[in-house]
Design brief:
Elements (H helix, E strand, L loop, with lengths): L17 H4 L4 H29 L5 H6 L1 H4 L12 E4 L4 E4 L1
Antiparallel strand pairs: 1-2
Keywords: Membrane, Transmembrane, Transmembrane helix
Pfam families: SEC-C
Protein name: SEC-C domain-containing protein
């Protein structure tokens, strides 16, 4: 069987030259597989990133467990009229 040259007519009968018709088709399956692998990899990275984000120690519930270290003492002197000191926030609030 004769090997098809790039400038010969394509074997499919389209009338086009082989280089413009079926010459690059064998690589399409490989490129589709590469796109699939890249897509799966991106999805796995996204899932890992979200799980790290949602399981981090910087959540509000974990910050409330360590409030003993972050409580701010009130400034010296009496509170302004109608105000109360908030240790969690570190400033005065209205009563």
């Amino acid at each position: 069987m004769k090997e098809i040259g790039r400038n010969d007519l394509c074997h499919c009968g389209s009338g086009k030259k082989y280089k413009n018709c079926h010459m690059g088709r064998s690589g399409e399956i490989t490129s589709n597989k590469n796109i699939l692998f890249i897509s799966v990899f991106v999805v796995i990275l996204a899932i890992a990133g979200f799980s790290i984000f949602y399981n981090s120690d910087n959540t509000p519930s974990s910050r409330n467990n360590n409030t003993n270290q972050s409580l701010t003492p009130p400034p010296p002197g009496e509170a302004p009229p109608g105000k109360v000191w908030s240790k969690e926030h570190g400033h005065y609030h209205d009563i």
